[in-house]
Amino acid sequence: MYLMTANGSVLGYRDGVGLVQVPALSANLSVMCEVEENNFAVLPASLTGITMEKNEDGTVSLVKDGFFIRAAPHWDKLEFNSSNLGDWEKFRVVSSSDLDGAVASWGLSSAPHIWGDIKVIQANPSIIIAKDCIYLPWNPSESWGLFSSDGDCIEAAMTERKIYNINTQANIDFDSVNNTNQEHYYIYCGYFNCHFGHFLIDTLSRLWFAHERGSAKLLFHSDHGAETWFHFPYVREVLNAIGITINDVVVLKEPVRLPEVLIPKTSLSAQRYIHHVYGEFCRNLNATIGPELPPSGVSNRVYLSRSQLSIGTGSFVNESEMEQYLANSGVKIIHPEELTFRQQLGLMQHAEKILAIAGSALHLSIFSSAKRIVALSANNVVNANYHLIDRVAKNTATYLTPVHITKEEKVANFATAYRLGDPKAVAYHLLEAIDS
Questions:
Q1: Is the CB of residue 412 less than 8 Å from the CB of residue 144?
Q2: Any bridge partners for residue 312, and if so which?
Q3: What does R_g of the chain's alpha carbons equal in angstroms?
Q4: What confidence tens digit (pLDDT) does each residue in 423-433 have?
């Protein structure tokens, strides 16, 4: 028999930690404190120094040094200084058959807050013609971008993302720029970012108009030469599908005066808005590229794991424990970085239910039909980009955050790292959510 708290967890003992609350999963039996149902005088070694008293309502209480032990909700630890007998000081005696179905509700909670805005626009983005402007090449510490002849930035060409360090004023006078482009007509397509997630959100969203370019060149900003872009397989696949070659793109290295440039506004402005054409554009690309099934196939439920990543923005150091529980429950574990881009598209096309830690891999849902998605966020704030894509992709998505999670010391090659308080409980609730 075991002791269940008022919030549905079970009394357990972990070496080096002591008495704790653990999720009511049979997988945790080895750490649960086992008691005899009718003989409270005989307690396990983990409860040495503690007495157990039976209450009139059939529950029991634990007393140590004259104080009740309190199992507060939304907390995995115990308190040993309660002087009042209330719900949180009472434990219910349960058997192993009562486990699993009574997992504590505190395993996961909703992630209701959104970082950014959510606006969905049916009409296509505006197309602006800018005359007599200055192109200032990429510079991480000074002004760069497209500017009018009076030095103001051209709004249609801007990105609001702080990572690009946009300056709204040119640091050079129009009249001081002697180099004037007369050779090509340009369509401006923003900053070319080869990072997987930023490529899909920031770069690809600017290319929705590229198929109508005719003989015009596509003008970009970039901190790398255009030839390096094609070294990234997913970039190469997408550009080939659009019909863009190295000869179609231009990155200027010096300030240049442009008599006229065409600027299609972005179809997805990060954390601000999305146009329906972005979804149409991506689904057409999907058909052109030709998705392929991953070598191991695809099941109804898949988990997109980050546990094998060697570099990234965030890491869950004990993610593998969570995914082991998922695997034992019939979920197929997929490491997207091990697949080709076509196989990643195939995975998204054929999987019906997708579990994941919120990350760039979920952006690929925009390339396929609507999905059921349950994603884990390290906190209760979710980047608006996920919601923007969900709206246009018509995904049914749920974002959850672990109640018990701690931030780890820095892990090499990751901006942040976290540890799940009980990865098995998190996995259990993820399954509960995806199957509901």
A1: no
A2: 414
A3: 28
A4: 988 999 999 99
Q: Considering the entire predicted model, what is its pTM?
A: 0.76
- CA-based nearest residue to 191, from 204, 182, 181, 180: 204
The helix/strand/coil state of 33 is coil
Place of tokens 């200027």: 252
- State the number of CA atoms in the 13 A half-sphere of 422 facing the CB: 28
Rounded-to-integer distance, Cα 368 and Cα 287, Å: 9
Q: CB-based contacts of 429: which residues, under 8 Å, 6+ apart?
A: 103, 107, 108, 400
CA–CA separation, 426 vs 429, rounded Å? 5
- Rounded CA separation 222/208 (Å): 19
Residue type, 244: I
pLDDT tens by residue, 211-224:
888 889 999 999 88
- Is 390 a residue whose pLDDT tops 80? yes
| Strand-by-strand arrangement of the 414-420 sheet | 312-316, 414-420, 405-407
Contacts of 149 by beta carbon, 8 Å cutoff, 6+ apart: 132, 133, 134, 174
What does the pLDDT average to over 266-287?
A: 97
- Please give the C-alpha separations between residue 290 and each of 235, 340, 353, 406, in angstroms, as whole numbers: 15, 12, 21, 41
Q: Which two tokens stand for residue 193?
A: 């970012």
* Closest C-alpha among 383, 435, 399, 418 to residue 108: 399
Over 323-378, what HEC string results? HHHHHHCCCEEECHHHCCHHHHHHHHHHCCEEEEECCHHHHHHHHCCCCEEEEECC
- Residue 303 CA: distances (Å) to CA of 95, 333, 341, 374: 32, 5, 17, 10
